[in-house]
Automatic annotation (TrEMBL):
Pfam families: HTH_Tnp_1
Family, per entry: Belongs to the transposase 8 family.
Protein name listed in UniProt: Transposase
Listed InterPro entries: Homeodomain-like_sf, Transposase_8
Organism of this sequence: Celerinatantimonas yamalensis
C-alpha cells in the first residue's frame, strides 16, 4: 500500500501559480514538483471553484 503524501499549505498555491501565472503546462509543473499531473489538475480545478 502506498502512503499518502502530505503537502504544506504553501505548496499547493505555489504549484497552482506555476500553471496560472507563469504559464507552465500542468505536466511540466507536475514533473518538476514531483507530483502527479492528475493531482495538480484537481488542485487547479478546486481553486477555480473557490474563486
Amino acid at each position: 500500500m502506498t502512503k499518502r503524501k502530505i503537502y504544506s499549505k504553501e505548496f499547493k498555491p505555489d504549484a497552482i501559480a506555476l500553471v496560472r501565472d507563469q504559464n507552465y503546462s500542468i505536466s511540466e509543473s507536475a514533473r518538476n514538483l514531483e507530483v502527479s499531473a492528475q493531482i495538480l489538475s484537481r488542485w487547479i480545478k478546486e481553486a477555480k471553484m473557490m474563486m
